[in-house]
Amino acid sequence: MVEGEGGSGRYSIETTGADLVTPAGEKVNKWEGSIDFPQQKALPLNMPMQVSAPGYDENGELRLDSITVRMAVQRTADKAGDAFEVSIPLLMDRQPEKTATFAELTPDSAFKWEALPEAYRPNTLNRELLVSDQLSILKVLAGLRFLMNYPHGCTEQRVSYAYPSLAYTDIWKEMGLESPDPDLKKYVQRTLEFLAKVQKPDGLFSYWPGSKGYVYLTAYIVEFLLEVEKANQQDGVQYPFDKDMLDRALKALERSLRSDYDQFLSGYKYYERSAALYALTLAGKAETSYLRELATQIRQVDVLSQSRIYLAIYKSDAELDKLRNDLAQRLWDYTIFKLQKGRKVFAGLQEREMRIGAEVHASEITNLAGLIRAFSKSGQSPDKLRMMVDELIILGSVDGWGHTNVNSAA
What is the extent of the structural domain holding 257? Predict the structure, then answer.
């Protein structure tokens, strides 16, 4: 903005990453011209501009992510002037397309890439072939990539991405594989920063800043925070861990176990209490009285909650062997095995007491994953457990097992 009298002056327009088109049709990056300042009126200055496709680098990213426009004016008489600079982001004209295929290789078969339906732009085609004798690893990678590319970001979705990725870090090292997420450390740090914004004064966590806190969500986040704390202690990663945030969450979960607590989600009291007790057990803060209480109240409750109570008893130092053994047998009673062509196979779970609820992220897959986690600790019936794991693997697809929480659980 140039104040004062009108008069003659000069203007200049300069661009980076774009071309200015002169009146003669030439393409330049800088243009200067003369103007007459009007008295107390705005003067628009227009000039055509073209942005050529910047192309893609070897990683398939745009070589240029923004253009810059700088403009200046100056009055000749007193050299009064003004200028500005603006950066305009460049976006892809179409979203990248990603496909994945699982195929079984045999001595007399070959794998072939599907032909592309159209020509691809230079440096935009990336193909990766991963061969393994363990289909489970391939399905896990598919699930993690689904989480990495998930476009939304509530509390559960952020934690469901960071939690399994962090937990699998040592497994990738043992197998000699590169982590599918090279930016995991940055993402965990951003997740921890977000969690600080969604923790309520009472210690519970909510899905978004300012929304209601939930016991089951807080229990899930405590599991993740304990994994972060373990990574700091064992791997020396040194994430910016807020111990006070974890302590507030643990105290909130401890309050939720009291008989006078009334902040549960309607119809999910036992589900939330079992989630809280399991998380507290992982933190070394389980009380035997609550373990005994919930273990004796398992009638007509969902199988995932029962699996959590079993694991809580197993991981605690409480002398509750009979309750633990009875609960193990009850959990096995949910499983169905049958003979198929003379071979025993896993045929699913009993439907009784199988609560499914999107509101608390419960599903058939989370129930199966919960049972597998429980049985893997007991060491009982390893052959049957292997069949259940195989079924869980089969249920996975190129996008893993479904939405974010289910992928994390599986």
Answer: 138-409
pLDDT surpasses 80 at 318: no
227 and 146 share a domain? Answer: yes
How many other C-beta atoms can be found within 10 angstroms of the C-beta atom of residue 119? Answer: 6
Q: Is the pLDDT of residue 2 over 70?
A: no
pLDDT value at 202 more than 80: yes
Residues 187 and 79 in one domain: no
Q: CA 312 to CA 307: how far, in whole Å?
A: 9
Confirm whether 94 is domain-assigned.
Answer: no
In degrees, to the nearest 5, what angle opens at C-alpha 142 toward C-alphas 141 and 145?
A: 85
Terminal CA-to-CA distance of the chain, rounded, Å? 60
Pairwise CA distance, residues 13 & 30, whole Å: 6
- Dump pLDDT digits (tens) for 159-197: 988 888 888 887 777 777 777 777 888 889 999 999 999
Q: Which residues of 9-32 are buried (b: 16+ CB within 10 A; e: fewer)?
A: bebebbbebbbbeeeeeeeeeebe
Rounded-to-integer distance, Cα 369 and Cα 410, Å: 6
Q: What is the DSSP string of 92-157?
A: -SS------------TT----PPPPSS---TT---------S-HHHHHHHHHHHHHHT-----HHH
Q: Is residue 110 part of a domain?
A: no
> Does a structural domain hold residue 133?
no
**Per-residue pLDDT band at 1 (split at 50, 70, 90):** low
Helix (H) or strand (E) holding 288: helix 288-295
CB atoms closer than 10 angstroms to residue 198: 20
The domain tally of the chain equals: 2
The candidate with the shortest Cα–Cα distance to 309, out of 338, 274, 340, is 274
Rg (CA), the chain: 30
How far is Cα 279 from Cα 163, in angstroms, rounded to an integer? 14
**332 by DSSP, 3-state: which?**
helix
**Inside any domain, residue 58:** no
Under DSSP, is residue 237 helix (H, G, I), strand (E, B) or coil? coil
Tell me the CATH number at 164. 1.50.10.20
Length of the chain: 410
